[in-house]
Amino acid sequence: MEEIYQRTELLIGEDGIRKLRNASVLVVGLGGVGAYCCENLSRAGIGKMTLVDGDIINPSNFNRQLIATRTNLGKLKAEVLAKRIEDINPKIQLNIISSYIKEDEMQGLLKKDKFNFVVDAIDTLSPKVSLIYNCVQLSIPIASSMGSGGRVDPQKVKIDDISRSFNCPLAFKVRKLLHRKGVFSGVSVVYSSEKVDKLSVIKEEGQNKKSTVGTISYMPAIFGCFLSSIVIRELIK
Question: What is the pTM (predicted TM-score) of this model?
Answer without folding.
Answer: 0.95
